[in-house]
């Protein structure tokens, strides 16, 4: 068996991943929470309840992305799928070119994403097609995996980041050099090996889900803003997609979504960059990832989620005394 979709890493706990709305990429697939079929929760009064589409459906619906506010998840029932393999193709493209063919690509491929060094015009596109588990696979050789993932994407890129942090004026040049080193590669492997990659370079990150149809406008405006930043950005932007779902606090609630994740190397200035991005994504009703950095509070989030008040009302019912309150929940949900 396999999970139908995964994010970039598989190091999270299942409950942490679903509670924060963790997602991968795929226009016909939802985030990890859409794979949940039942939950067992320990509620604030100590009772243990099971919820599913048939049993306490309101609680089930909300607790799939519950931010830890509704109870402690003690059991998760996941809908898995028969094991499958992925045929991956990665190749560099100009940003404008990929934006032009992004929608058809998302329609024809099962999983599409791209990375973009923000001081360059080039992106690295990755798309995967699902294959049956018994399809013959052709993984990258161990030596190539070591070179591509450990050397290029972690050790060498980590050194590039350190250099950029020490000498910020060279960052735009480093961006362009790194982007020029992107090359084509094609391989197939078990699904979980293709979805995830080792990530050892430390960074700060924010990510917003925007309506799919706004992606081009958001990226164009964001691209125009990058040269005006006082501090350059060394880590690429990541763009992914997901299908609409019906989970009240899911970032993809009610709309097909594009996810734009922006990062900065740890220790480098990021506030102006993140503020600029949050303003542009916010103008199209963007919703921040619950497990990543953002500056929104309950008053703004209420305008971004049509069922925000339903979630708050449910929370008040199952945790009337605020047993699960904390500073983050006070900010994003307001008082119980
Ligand atoms: C390197 C890296 C790559 C990432 N890639 C992706 C990606 O590709 N896609 C994506 O969407 N996100 C991604 N993330 C974000 C990540 O998936 C989330 O931050 C996730 O919440 C981390 O899970 P955790 O188990 O480590 O977190 P925790 O900190 O353990 O949990 C996060 C929150 O979930 C809730 N929670 C945890 N356990 C329970 C429980 N038992 N009951 C109730 N509530 C609970 C709590 O509110 C907790 O604060 C990435 C993060 C990193 C660091």
Instruction: From the 3D structure, determine the CATH topology of the domain at 84-203 and 221-240 and 252-274.
Output: Vanillyl-alcohol Oxidase, Chain A, domain 3
CATH architecture type of the domain at 84-203 and 221-240 and 252-274: 3-Layer(aba) Sandwich
Q: Cofactors and ligands present?
A: flavin-adenine dinucleotide
- What's the alpha carbon Rg, rounded to whole Å? 20 Å
CATH 4th-level superfamily of the domain at 84-203 and 221-240 and 252-274: FAD-linked oxidases, C-terminal domain
Helix content: 25-40%
Shape: globular
Number of alpha- plus pi-helical segments: 12
Terminal residue distance: 40 Å
What is the CATH C-level name of the domain at 84-203 and 221-240 and 252-274?
A: Alpha Beta
Instruction: Tell me about the largest β-sheet.
Output: 8 strands, antiparallel
The neighbouring-strand order within the major sheet is 7-4-6-5-9-10-8-11
Q: Point out poorly predicted stretches.
A: none
Summarize the helix and strand pattern as letters: HEEHEEHHEEHHEHEHEEHEHHH
In words, what does this structure look like?
This protein has helices at 14-19, 57-63, 95-100, 102-108, 142-166, 171-181, 191-195, 215-225, 271-282, 298-304, 308-318, 327-333; strands spanning 36-42, 48-51, 72-78, 84-94, 111-116, 122-132, 185-190, 203-211, 237-242, 257-265, 287-288. It is of the alpha+beta class. It has a domain at 84-203 and 221-240 and 252-274: FAD-linked oxidases, C-terminal domain (Vanillyl-alcohol Oxidase, Chain A, domain 3, 3-Layer(aba) Sandwich), CATH 3.40.462.10. The mean pLDDT is 96. The structure holds flavin-adenine dinucleotide. Residues 7-9, 12-13, 15-17, 19-20, 22-23, 67-68, 72-73, 199, 289, 291 line the site of flavin-adenine dinucleotide (FAD).
